[in-house]
Amino acid sequence: MARYSISDLEQLSGVKAHTIRIWEQRYNLLSPSRTTTNIRTYGEADLRRLLNVAALCARGQRISQVVRLSEEECQTAALSLCNEVQPADFARLNAMLGATLDLDEPRLHRLFDEAIEQLGPEDALLRLGYPLLQRLSVSWKEGSLSVAQERLVAQLLRQELMASADALPLIPLSQADAPRWLLFLPEGEWQELALLFMNYALRARGQQVLYLGPNLPLPDIIAAARTFQPTVLATVLTTTPARAQLNNYADELRKQYPDATLLLFGTLAVQAKQLPEGCLPMACLHEFRDLIPVINQVVEAQLTEK
Fold this sequence. Notes:
It contains 14 helices and seven strands. By secondary structure, it is of the alpha/beta class.
């Protein structure tokens, strides 16, 4: 049975550790155990209880009233909030997290499908899917969750992004006024969720996209660029290339295909120093979404000059 530290509870629920301690001391909300060194640890029942209580409190209910509810009443009330539109999506996110902890794939799909129906694919992913994945990633890296739970969510997001993109019409290459985006992951890079989001967001806005996917050697990227003639080369860098080789990698891409802007997304990119001219580092998918109309304006200005 999984055990969680109070830091884990904070990461997974979004409730500050200080608040958790107050709720525990004042209302006996949770039932922690203690290690031989007197450190509190919490079980799965504690985590689910906290998720439900936090969801109800986020909707304005008083903690003093919520703690009077039975476990069943608390869970029923929290789940009922998932059908309401909420600014912070707190209840829906916690319900999805509960389904993930139980490895309940049908319930997780149902909750996410309902979110897509109400919010649309992009907002459902940005407001729910990726925050959920981020919470899980932090916890399994610290050893408090199994990798299976993180993989369940990652696979769900991958399926939704691919299905949403496939439902969109392809833009013909003859449409010269649409910017061209070549999307790829470098050789050795396999984490393609952010790239799949880019693919969907671009195609939903009528952009021409060539999606080449993960693990692409540099010569193949250059060959594809010379044929496709993209306006932007976009990639995600989380594990490769090595930090010391990043500038050389960007330099080579710019040297071999200097006509396109090079968009580098991910932790490696934003931490790099002195990237070559024409490189644009980016760490946030919201920021990427805002960039698309800017690129359109640049292309339109270039076409007008011609």
